[in-house]
UniProtKB/TrEMBL annotation:
Short motif ('HIGH' region): ranges: 11-21
Protein name, UniProt field: Glutamyl-Q tRNA(Asp) synthetase
Gene for this chain: gluQ
SUPFAM superfamilies: Nucleotidylyl transferase (SSF52374)
Motif placement: 'KMSKS' region: 239-243
Organism annotation: Ramlibacter agri
């Protein structure tokens, strides 16, 4: 048991929870309970154009209906922007962040000129055009100057992971051209500010981890433990998401929803109601992922 454990579920309020997002919520809750720790909810509404009015409160209602109640009041990223600007200012002063004038089209043209073909669904790797100055152009965004090569970390489920950030991503955005703070910066700042020790989230976010580790090092922040969970797939074989038509959770029977999420996590446990099912699931999770 680890009384210092602090975990979190951090949904984006782009709509209500669906089957895939319940898997991530349940896994993070189970991990916190299995370690005798605290479980927080953070509404990641930093990308304001994608947010749906009222979705944040609907998500909290859905979590409560499943018996997943945070141990502290939820926080909203949109109310924490001064923290992100402070972190960005620190990076700029340390020479680790710089302004960028490039549009997406500029980056694509620069990559073509270098003979670098972008693979389908792959990252648009930034070629470093503005690393040495804007050359009279107006700044659009701010980027982290990536100075390290390969980044390796241990995932509690996936095992050893690595990514060559300069080659696979390049200098990445910290503050966007529209003035909004990038997910990578916001999540690193928030995890540190909230004292998060363990991050449990969907496997689709695993490739963000190396960038977040680099930011943690640049800002001299602690690095949490990471566990990335299996994904629920849609009919097309891709991750179930709102973009590919994921339906909102049907919570007329919360126990059935929890059981389905549990099966995705490899927990085929039983209970007469949500409370007893969750208690049994905590024991099963502790047996598998306890430390």
């Amino acid at each position: 048991m680890s009384p210092a454990y602090r975990g979190r579920f951090a949904p984006s309020p782009t709509g209500p929870l669906h089957a895939g997002s319940l898997v991530a919520a349940l896994a993070s809750w189970l991990d916190a309970r299995a370690h005798g720790g605290r479980w927080l909810v953070r509404i990641e509404d930093v990308d304001k154009p994608r947010c749906v009015a009222g979705a944040d409160h609907e998500i909290l209602r859905q979590l409560a209906a499943c018996g997943l109640t945070p141990d502290e009041p939820p926080v909203w990223q949109s109310r924490r922007e001064p923290l992100y600007q402070e972190a960005l200012d620190r990076l700029v002063q340390a020479g680790r962040a710089y302004p960028c004038a490039c549009s997406r089209k500029d980056i694509e043209e620069a990559l073509r000129a270098l003979g670098r073909q972008r693979e389908r669904n792959a990252e648009l790797v930034y070629p470093g055009t503005c690393r040495d100055g804007l050359h009279g152009r107006a700044a659009r965004a701010w980027r982290l100057r990536v100075e390290e090569g390969g980044v390796t970390w241990a995932d509690r489920r996936l095992g050893t992971q690595s990514q060559d950030v300069p080659r696979e991503v390049g200098d990445f955005v910290l503050k966007r051209a529209d003035g909004l703070y990038a997910y990578q910066l916001a999540v690193v700042v928030d995890d540190a500010a909230q004292g998060i020790t363990h991050v449990v989230r969907g496997e689709d976010l695993a490739d963000n981890t190396a960038r977040q580790l680099l930011l943690q090092r640049a800002l001299e922040l602690p690095t949490p433990s990471y566990l990335h969970t299996p994904l629920v797939l849609g009919p097309n074989g891709e991750k179930l998401s709102k973009q590919n038509g994921a339906a909102a959770l049907d919570l007329r029977d919360p126990l059935a929803a929890l059981q389905a999420a549990g099966r995705t996590l490899g927990l085929d446990v039983h209970g007469s109601d949500s409370g007893s099912w969750l208690a049994t699931a905590v024991s099963a999770w502790a047996h598998r992922y306890g430390m």
